[in-house]
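Re: the pair you flagged

First of the two:
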Amino acid sequence: FKRRGFIPNYFDKFIFAPAAIPWLTIGTFSLISALSISVGREEYGVDNAMISSRYTTTSILLIISLIYLFGLFLQQQQKYLSIYKIFAVVMTGIMMVNSVYVVASVKSSFPYMESRKECLEIINYLEDSEFIQESQDSCLVLMNGKTWLVREGAEIMAKLGWREIPQNLEFITETKQTYGYLDYPQTTENTLIINKDETISLGGWAIRPDRNKQPNLVLLSSGENQYFFANAIVNLESNDIAKVLKSKLYSRARWKVKFSAKSLPVGETVIKAWVYNSDKQEFIKLNDEVKVRVEDG
């Protein structure tokens, strides 16, 4: 039976073949998921999606469905079978190369992901400074650009008993072992003078000599405050540290951070660097401090 004006479509039999329906459904699901994720997570950029497995996993379903759909189409066209085999091999190769790239990206971004867990545990000790609320290096911003939402979520989880937020943590200023240094800029007796509208860069290195798992965050405080106005991710290359301490565990122990002087009080203060010991629920001070005088205007 042929309708008037209807031109037989070469693909009709394939399109409505029952065998194709599951693969069409899987492919459509992958496209809809990608679209919804793109719209919902646009503000966090492409990098956020690339290193998050929950975003990239569904894209694999589209590739798989296309390979099978192409195979079903060529079942009746044996002359194209060799083309399909080449296509399948190429697509498989692309998936493998992409997987290697993603694994490498995740590995390099692992300290950032781990820092979120540590950040959430000490959230009550993070000040509402300009850095913590807005900087791309802020451990709160890494979780969600709307830092107030992270704080509210942490409070709700604590009330429901889903997560314990430690209280009354100790601040340890002296230890027998070395946990690291704040060594940039080089510590001197001279006070660093900076205008409130300028930025300041600090750096150093941090380790956990008492365990294999190394710190993910260095936390900065000013004066005698027992809360932190900024943080740094510990993930920079430090082969010199690893060589001196004779351990590959310390091959990425350096950290560096830049922040606005607006995060500091006007006047003279001292900046200290700390690491968090989750085992004993305490903050341990790194060696050396930086004296700063912030001038207003």
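Second of the two:
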Amino acid sequence: MIVVISLLLVLTGYSFLQKSSFFFLQNQTKEPIKFGATYMTMNNPFFEVVNDEIENEIKQRGDVLYTMDPALSVDKQIEHIQRLIQMDIDVLFVNPIDNTKLHDVLEECRKKGIIVIAVDTNLDSNDYVSYTVTSDNYLAGVLAAQDMMTQKESANIVLLEHSQTASGSSRIQGFVDTIESHPEYKIVARKECEGQLENAMPCIFSILNEDISFDVIMALNDPSALGAMAALEDYGREDVLVYGVDGTPETKVLIKDGKMRATSAQFPIQMGQKAIEIAYQLLEKKPLKTNETKISVTLITSENINDFSLAGWQ
């Protein structure tokens, strides 16, 4: 009897080892899931942070991420997405340069069964995306305008824009709508800068050279706000309230030092984490209650700057 029981234990143990080995080998030999990502430009630390969060989770799971930088070229972004399709990706994270011009290439993704997740910027139609993760971009502009009206009884305002992008347009629209019924706040100039520091500087230089009177700048993001600040510094202008959107470490230092008024802070770490969380849920065919996450924004000013780290992103 003892011999029989011992034999059964040995066989059971052998069977368990066989199954464990099978599952171990199966896990070791599984094909990695392929992810692709294309942001409007990697010349913006915001997208680097979003991408890092996505990549960290992908690497931990043994999968792979291919990241493309179209450098603000719609044609390049379309070309990059086509290349990613040829690489047999399973999921595409897309931050559209122009939210109206990717229909055809995203339709190719749909036909191939590729999951498409829009990040930071909406597309003009949900027909081409599985999910969208953005900040509340409209609110970012509203908060800046509301703060400005507490600081000034009237103002001449310069807008730094990137009208081609949905996120940039929403921020500026939120600002414009908030002051619309207040004629004492006047928009005296609007300049397209593509959200780039190196473009924002000459925009402000040109306004200064035209001798246009202004005392507020609303910039669609922090890089363009930093460009504006650099131009103002060259002209010795310390009387201008400058607003941005992002919450970069650099702008938080300027706010702390009293050189910049405020930034509507985004949360790129949370955005990246949410995007990759949703991607794996969609891959596992888990049901979702909604097809969009809109992450709120917070206005950082000199009054609450001590609540935020100056060293990194929130």
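The domain at 34-135+268-295 is CATH 3.40.50.2300 (Rossmann fold).

-B.
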